[in-house]
Amino acid sequence: MQNKSQQAAGTVVILGTGGTIAGSGDDVGYTAGQMSVQALVGAVPALAGRQLEAEQVAQVDSKDMSHAIWQRLAQRLAHHLAREEVAGVVVTHGTDTLEETAWFLQRVLAPAKPVVLTAAMRPATSLQADGPQNLLDAVTLAAWPGAQGVVAVLQGRVHGPAEVRKRQPFALDAFESGEDGPLAVVQEGQVRALRSWPSGEALGLERIAADAGTWPRVDIVVSHAGADGVVVEALVAAGARGLVVEGTGNGTVHASLLAALARARAAGLPVLRASRCSGGAIVGSPEGALPTAGVLTPAKARVELLLQLLLPPSS
Ligand code: ASP
């Protein structure tokens, strides 16, 4: 594939949402989401003189990510991506839910320009801070003419929105794309593409236009030894409109839990089946005929079902 080293003419917009990359404190006892996105940009000397704009969209630990922030982020992204002078957009984010945000944004926007999520495993104040290099790589990628779609860059590796997952709770090299591997690498300001960039049809902002507080409730239930249907029944009673089951192995589900899911489905609740394995995709197993989420993790499958339930405006 092509290796283009030149940068696209144009502005890169950096949207801050918080996370450890904006955290302050020591490597374990820190508080995420403390530093402004402007301060993060100012801390990277190599970004001086680049055509950048920075905007704070949120300031949260991404474990507390909300549908309202996703909605606002998608709206701000759409606004900036529509500006002719903008080459691409970077989103600084926490690592904990980065993969969910990536899938949500790709499905809603499927942008022709790059939207590059980046994060850090060490706070901005750490002696081992990984945020500055990740931010620099993200800006490089957002300005690179060959990139498109929503991607994540960490530790020099570019991950696609369907594949990216956090695999390590503390190690610096915490992200992977499983057996598919990264889309590209960024090394010393050079992008080397390895496979195709994300594409697809955007569901559009209209799909997520309703007040986020009214979005349908979609929950994840886990299959495990000793599982039963109590959680499913409680969630249905609490108003769940869809369920994702995090199955064992090849999407298998404990018989007692499966029976409860079948009852919920018969009552009209959509159920999507994912695997709790840390890689791969469910292969052709007909466990209770529950549809599978393919390569999507349970958390991304929840996003998928949520977006399906947020019906298009015409329906
Ligand atoms: N809890 C943090 C967050 O997701 C972890 C991180 O960013 O590394 O915001």
Structure keywords:
315 residues; alpha/beta; Rossmann fold; 2 domains; eight-stranded mixed beta sheet; three-stranded parallel beta sheet; globular; disordered N terminus; binds aspartic acid
Structure description:
It contains seven helices and 15 strands. It has 315 residues and is α/β, with parallel strands linked by helices. It has two domains: 4-193, Rossmann fold (3-Layer(aba) Sandwich), CATH 3.40.50; 216-309, Rossmann fold, CATH 3.40.50.40. Strands 4-1-5-6-7-8-11-12 form an eight-stranded mixed beta sheet, sandwiched between helices. The radius of gyration is 20 Å and the shape is globular. Residues 1-6 have low confidence and may be disordered. Bound molecules: aspartic acid. Residues 19-20, 32, 61-63, 94-96, 119, 121 line the site of aspartic acid.
Give a brief outline of the structure.
The chain has 315 residues and is an alpha/beta fold. It contains seven helices and 15 strands.
Task: Produce the secondary structure layout.
Layout: E1 11-18, E2 24-25, E3 30-31, H1 37-42, E4 52-60, H2 67-81, E5 86-92, H3 98-109, E6 114-118, H4 131-142, E7 149-154, E8 157-159, E9 165-166, E10 175-176, E11 184-187, E12 190-193, E13 218-222, H5 230-237, E14 242-247, H6 255-266, E15 271-275, H7 298-309
Parallel strand pairs: 1-4, 1-5, 5-6, 6-7, 13-14, 14-15
Antiparallel strand pairs: 2-3, 7-8, 8-11, 9-10, 11-12
Bound molecules: aspartic acid.
